[in-house]
Amino acid sequence: MQIKIINNGPYVVDGDIPIKEVTTLFGEKGAAVDYAEGKTFEPTAQKKFICRCGRSKNMPFCDGSHINNFEGAETDNRKNYDDEAELIKGERCSYLNNEKLCSYSGFCVNGYDYEAAAGKCDSGCMVLVDGDGNKIETALPKEIFIVANESATGPAFVRGGIQITSGDGFNYEIRNRVTLCRCGKSKNKPFCDGSHKH
Predict the structure, then answer these.
(1) How many CB atoms are located within 10 Å of the residue 2 CB?
(2) What are the beta bridge partners of residue 96?
(3) Is this prediction's pTM over 0.85?
(4) Cβ neighbours around 10 below 10 Å, total
C-alpha cells in the first residue's frame, strides 16, 4: 500500500486503502473536536487517482484538469518530523510541534485542551509526548479521509502509516497522521499548509 505522486499530476493510491469523505465537528469554543464520517468512495480499480490541482469536476478523483498548467512541484524540504519539531512543555502535558505541517484544521484554537488537540491533530504537526519524551500516538487504520467541510479542496488526511512516494522516487517519512494538499496552492507540497482556507 502506498501513495505515489505524479509530477504535476495526481496522487496515485495503490492498494486496498479505504477513501472516505468526512466533515469536521466543532465544539462550544469553536475548536474542532472530531470528524464525522460520510460516504465511502467505492473503489473502481486497484489504483485510484486523487486530484492534486484542486480543479477536478469529479472530486476527489482526478479528471485530467491538471494538464492545463498545474505547477505541482514538491517543495517540502524532506526532513523528518523530529528534525524540525519543537518540544512544548505545559502544566498538564507536553507535546512536539512541527508548525510547517499545520493544516489549520482548528483542533488547537480558542484555548482548546491541548492534550486532546495533539491527539486529534490531522496533520500530525502536534504529537503528545510522555515524561521521557516518547511520542504517544493512537494506532489508526490505514485509510484516507477527504476533508470536505470547508470547500471541495480541503486536505487528504492520510491515516495509519501509509508510505508516500515522491515523483522522483523519494520515500517520505512514514507517519501515523499527515495531510496532503488537494487545492494545489500549498507552499509545502505535497503536504497541506492551510492554503485552501484562503
Answers:
(1) 14
(2) 87, 127
(3) yes
(4) 25
Quote the strand ranges of the chain, DSSP E.
2-5, 11-14, 19-26, 32-41, 47-50, 86-89, 94-97, 126-129, 135-136, 143-147, 156-159, 163-165, 177-180
Closest CA to 175 of 135, 131, 129: 135
Strand residue runs (E) in 42-186: 47-50, 86-89, 94-97, 126-129, 135-136, 143-147, 156-159, 163-165, 177-180
Maximum CA pair distance of the chain?
Answer: 51
Q: Do residues 120 and 33 make contact, with C-beta atoms less than 8 angstroms apart?
A: yes
Q: What is the pLDDT of residues 41-85, one digit of tens each?
A: 876 667 899 999 999 999 999 999 999 889 999 999 999 999 999
Q: Decide: 192 and 135 in contact? Cβ < 8 Å.
A: no
Tell me how crowded residue 109 is: count the other CB atoms within 10 A of its CB.
14
